[in-house]
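Query structure, 213 tokens:
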């Protein structure tokens, strides 16, 4: 797993950003009073996961990608809005079948998904964009290599328990929920991800407790 230092932001948790005046946990990078390490749930998974996080999500207290990253042993996280082809290719050194978790839209010209390549999840790499719908769309537009990846859409969108952020479209999930659903779809094992999703509910409850009534 990768770790990085994150910039400070002069805002309170209630405003959606992490405070800067408190000591931070070295693992989850949050203030110690808002540490989420107790919700980290190591989960065995077959497909590799590459999380591309928009910079505005790094300090967002309600973001679920850090919990996902810390819980998936075979995950990596890169931060940026624009990713060069060399940067992305450096993040995968083996010839796995790389797919982008993203809903198919009529205007998208992505290559067709090859079902035969998905039969062995251990040979698949799942790329996940962590950002708002608008930001993730911009990340996709600014990084040509991402637009060349086949798109993996969720076959059945589960009900979201992400009560701490407003969904702008029906069926929108948190990064953690969407990634777990995609991995379960690829691997044919939804049971494997239930403990992590249960821990996610605890994370959501913790964040709700910070919001004034």
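Result returned for the query:
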């Amino acid at each position: 797993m990768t770790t990085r230092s994150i910039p400070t932001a002069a805002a309170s948790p209630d405003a959606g950003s992490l405070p800067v005046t408190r000591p931070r946990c070295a693992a989850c990078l949050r203030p110690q009073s808002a540490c989420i390490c107790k919700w980290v749930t190591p989960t065995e998974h077959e497909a590799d996961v590459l999380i591309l996080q928009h910079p505005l999500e790094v300090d967002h207290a309600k973001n679920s990608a850090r919990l996902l990253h810390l819980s998936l042993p075979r995950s990596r996280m890169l931060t940026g809005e624009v990713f060069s082809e060399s940067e992305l290719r450096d993040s995968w050194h083996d010839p796995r079948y790389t797919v982008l978790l993203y809903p198919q839209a009529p205007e998208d010209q992505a290559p067709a998904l090859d079902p035969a390549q998905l039969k062995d999840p251990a040979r698949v790499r799942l790329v996940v964009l962590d950002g708002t719908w608008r930001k993730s769309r911009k990340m996709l537009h600014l990084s040509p290599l991402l637009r060349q990846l086949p798109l993996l859409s969720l076959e059945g969108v589960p009900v979201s328990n992400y009560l701490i952020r407003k969904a702008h479209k029906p069926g929108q999930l948190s990064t953690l929920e969407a990634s777990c659903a995609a991995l379960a779809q690829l691997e044919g094992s939804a049971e494997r991800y239930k403990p992590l999703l249960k821990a996610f509910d605890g994370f959501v409850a913790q964040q709700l407790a910070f919001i004034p009534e």
